[in-house]
Design goal:
Chain A has about 525 residues and is an alpha/beta fold. Chain A is built from 14 helices and 23 strands. Chain B is an alpha+beta fold. Chain B has a seven-stranded antiparallel β-sheet with strand order 16-15-14-13-12-18-17. Chain B has a four-stranded antiparallel β-sheet with strand order 4-9-7-8, sandwiched between helices. A three-stranded mixed β-sheet of chain B has the order 1-2-5. Classes of the chains: A alpha/beta (about 525), B alpha+beta (about 375).
């Protein structure tokens, strides 16, 4: 049995094949195509030709893709979204779509309503739903919206109203109509969660073509009976049906796959990962094999959201970063010669001093013609390396949660520029397959479920609250395609809330299980 | 008189969060409310304190309650009108000549702008703290013996209460309980004041100061060190520290967010340490085990690179910050001011010493 992993990045589409022991058998890299689909087909074709295996033994195919991110950034292929906010009379002072870029509101049609509904922070009713109000709205919107986002005040505490409204919409618009409920997408913070839910609703068409395209590409290569999965940004997988409900969860799966792949290659579960590209370096943190989540509001295409995203820090430092001398000061990056490195770097006969040239001068790497950099003063090269070291040290430090030294796994094509020693880092681990770490990350992913709610421990004791949250997370995981008896609890986060007179705690749990 | 437009509001939100010394809530939702209100009703007039009549009547407006609730359930918008009308009616005043903020802070600097836009009232360039504090009696009007009541309190559901209390500490107690019942956030109109009282007891020019601070922080054409120098000059401030947060210890007690953070010096502060104690707001800073600033003086944390204000909710390990100290308004430095909001009120056993003296002493010892 074999698994295929495909990662569509900005520059390259990588494809890899793993055997039943999850050993890497074959990998290819080909340029990402404008329509994405042709690029996937091409790399799949090359992979199967090169690997020369029995296609009927392929059981799983995983795709990590940037299509949803691109659709938002480029404002393309987005659905018209109607927003139903449940909270009237509260929240009317800031309307849905406030502070959105005007072109984005146009694309999504800008339809919204603030209807009766919502809860208080302690789960008491803010106002009751009014079915007539919703039905009337749906009649007005008929033909004008292609997808609906439902957002209830404090739905993270109680989401039965959101689910009720979803049912009413299905009664009027049919079972197949795409509906996104905010309680299943974002966390506390109405505006940010609403924004994330609207984006999720807007992606319903993109995810449809993406998943269809992938299945068709597989079929074109004669691969039929396989389980097909999409990668989420927390390093786990989702089934096609689940992905269609939560397309927004594919955003930022690229860096996630890369750090997960790094963990797999190095066999380390708790570490920091440094992925050095041509222009930038991404740093992420693995906790028990999964990327740490970001705790602050994240902007996607200029829209403030709060859905789950990996905590990644990017620095303008890569293998093509330009080295300059400014008076007495040496600067490295943030600009880079990028993909033109093979023409512009000194070692390749070009005229721009890059970080790669410094690495070759100091004997850290053997690329291009080392005689072309022999004239560089060694003390100067060391000073540049010191600057690189200090940039990395600062970025790594920002990702730490304590002042202790961390271990670091190094992947990515630009890894050669990284010095042997960095302050604050105990060991640096490298892998020869670091270049396709992202596709490996895609193919080894597991299936997760997550649940978050504010519990009042004085009413519902901690043990019961934990159990309740865990059960709900398990349900999510099963829905996403996990085998129920392999599911284990991997994360519990408790945050006591300020100002609450009772013992109110925001509880977040995450479970992970193996694929069906 | 001048008008406050979108750019002015963006700047005021940043500057007020800076003066909020870590408390006062996330400025984002407050700012969206104010921007939505002026988009609908047009820009708001700002009057300086010299432009108002002594006999005219003014009512401030503020939100009370948990910032963590406000990010999920924010007001309908017409509560402000209702609560204003109710209080005016109760007081027997036909004309309310304007409104003003109770405190500087991300949320409460913005609420009166919403009120002013909706009612077509002018905003007055003053507040009752010149910073943020957690309790209703911690207001300069209180220091001058002005009563917080009659006050009105309301929620988005339409519940309205009018309180008359025997003193301002009771106002705090009763309003706090009502706020919890209203869903942990409420709108309050209190300290109704005449123009003469504002002139006598308010912290003047605070809206303009917030706006100027915000302008400097948001400016894109200056280097961070130049921005910092302009900021310090504008606010008579001191840079107390540059460091990275290495530890944050928190506990929630009686509805407040208490704790302390440890900072390790960076750059020119490389061998120094700092400890900042907070209770919603930053209240006491110790540099190398010696107190360098204490409440009611202002201890403001800003991002090391952007100078954007850092709220106590968003503190975390590894964040690089600068600590800036500003002298409090002179009313806070009186015996009653120190008794109301000095270090001892918050449980820190120190005699209040002004920041100017503490900094001078530290510099002298260093030399």
């Amino acid at each position: 049995m074999y698994k295929i992993g495909i990662d569509v990045g900005g520059t390259n589409t990588d494809a890899i094949l793993l055997d039943h022991n999850s050993q890497l058998i074959y990998s290819v890299k080909s340029p990402t195509s404008l329509d994405i689909k042709t690029g996937i087909e091409k790399s799949l074709q090359q992979l199967l030709e090169g690997a020369n295996i029995d296609k009927t033994k392929i059981t799983h195919a995983m795709l990590g893709t940037t299509q949803c991110t691109n659709a938002i950034v480029e404002r393309k292929k987005l659905a018209k979204v109607g927003v139903i906010r449940l909270g009237y009379p509260a929240t009317a002072s800031v309307l849905p779509y406030t502070a959105w870029p005007a072109d984005m509101i146009d694309k999504l049609s800008g339809n919204y309503a603030i209807a009766h509904g919502g809860y208080e922070y302690d789960g008491q009713l803010l106002s009751a739903l009014d079915q007539q109000e919703i039905t009337k709205l749906l009649e007005e919107w008929r033909g004008q919206v292609e997808s609906i986002a439902i957002v209830g005040v404090f739905s993270s505490i109680k989401n039965d109203q959101e689910l009720q409204v979803r049912e009413w919409i299905q009664e009027v618009y049919g079972e197949e109509f795409p509906i996104s409920c905010s309680s299943l997408i974002g966390s506390v913070g109405l505006i940010e969660r609403e924004n994330a839910t609207i984006l999720n609703a807007a992606l319903c068409k993109v995810i449809e073509t993406t998943t269809q395209g992938f299945v068709q590409a597989l079929q074109a290569e004669g691969i039929f009976d396989v389980e097909v999965y999409l990668c989420q940004n927390d390093g786990t997988l989702m089934s096609i049906d689940y992905a269609k409900q939560f397309p927004i969860l594919t955003i930022a799966c690229g860096p996630t796959n890369s750090i997960r792949g790094a963990s797999y290659l190095s066999q380390i579960q708790n570490t920091m990962v440094l992925d050095v590209g041509g222009t930038t370096s991404d740093i992420g943190v693995l906790q028990d094999g999964f990327p740490r989540e970001s705790s602050v509001a994240v902007e996607v295409g200029d829209i403030r959201t709060n859905f789950r995203m990996p905590d990644i820090i990017s620095v303008g430092l890569g293998g093509g970063s330009i080295v300059r001398v400014n008076g007495n000061k040496i600067t490295v990056g943030p600009d880079s010669v990028g993909y033109k490195i093979s023409e512009e770097a000194l070692v390749f006969g070009g005229s721009t001093l890059t970080t790669t040239d410094i690495a070759v001068r100091l004997g850290l790497a053997d690329v291009g013609d080392s005689t072309l950099v022999a004239h560089i003063d060694e003390a100067f090269a060391k000073a540049v390396q010191e600057e690189i070291s200090s940039l990395l040290e600062q970025a790594i430090d920002k990702m730490k949660t304590s002042s202790e030294d961390v271990s670091l796994v190094l992947v990515g094509g630009g890894g050669i520029i990284v010095p042997e020693k960095i302050r604050g880092v105990s060991t640096i681990v490298k892998s020869e397959y670091g270049g396709v770490a992202n596709a490996i990350g895609a193919s080894i992913a597991q299936i997760s479920g997550q649940y978050e709610q504010i519990y009042i421990y004085s009413k519902e004791p901690r043990e019961e609250s934990l159990k309740d949250a865990q059960n709900k997370a398990v349900k999510q995981a099963v829905l996403a395609g996990a085998l129920e008896d392999t599911i284990e609890l991997v994360e519990v986060e408790e945050t006591p809330l300020a100002y609450h007179p009772e013992n109110a705690t925001r509880l977040k749990v995450k479970v992970v299980g193996k694929m069906v | 008189m001048r008008y406050l437009d979108q750019a002015a509001i963006e700047h005021i939100a940043i500057g007020a969060a800076f003066l909020g010394t870590g408390g006062g809530g996330d400025p984002y939702i407050g700012k969206l409310m104010a921007l939505s209100a002026i988009e609908k009703n047009g820009p708001v007039k700002l009057y300086s304190v010299d432009e108002i009549a002594d006999d005219d009547f003014f009512i401030p407006a503020a939100m009370m309650g948990a910032p963590s609730v406000l990010v999920e359930k924010f007001p309908h918008g017409d509560e402000f009108v209702k609560v204003f009308q109710k209080l005016a009616q109760y007081l027997g005043k036909e004309k309310i000549a304007g409104t003003y903020p109770m405190e500087a802070g991300g949320v409460n600097s913005m609420i009166p702008i919403v009120v002013a836009a909706q009612l077509g009232l002018p905003l007055i360039d003053c507040d009752g703290m010149g910073r943020a504090f957690p309790e209703l009696q911690m207001v300069t009007f209180h220091l001058d013996g002005i009563s917080a009541t009659p006050m009105a309190i309301t929620d988005e559901k339409g519940n309205i209460g009018i309180f008359e209390t025997i003193d301002n500490k009771w106002t705090e107690r009763i309003a706090r309980t009502a706020t919890v019942e209203m869903g942990a956030s409420s709108l309050v109109s209190l300290y109704p004041t005449t123009g003469a009282q504002i002139k006598q007891s308010g912290v003047h020019h605070i809206v303009t100061l917030s706006e100027k601070i915000g302008e400097i922080i948001a400016s894109k054409d200056q280097e961070v060190n130049d921005k910092l120098q302009s900021l310090l000059k504008l606010a008579d401030g001191y840079e107390l520290f540059q460091g990275k947060i290495v530890d944050v210890i928190r506990e929630t007690k009686g509805g407040f967010n208490l704790g302390k953070m440890n900072l390790e010096g960076i750059e020119s502060y490389k061998n120094d340490q700092m400890k900042v104690h907070f209770q919603n707001e930053n209240l006491l800073a110790e540099k190398n085990e010696q107190v360098i600033a204490m409440t009611p003086d202002l201890i403001c944390l800003v991002d090391y690179e952007t100078l954007l204000p850092v709220t106590t909710e968003s503190l975390k390990y590894g964040k690089r910050v600068r600590v800036i100290g500003l002298p409090a308004h002179e009313k806070w430095r009186t015996a009653k001011g120190i008794e109301t909001a000095g270090p001892k009120y918050f449980g820190y056993e120190y005699e209040y010493t002004p920041i100017e003296e503490l900094v001078k002493k530290e510099v002298a010892e260093h030399v």
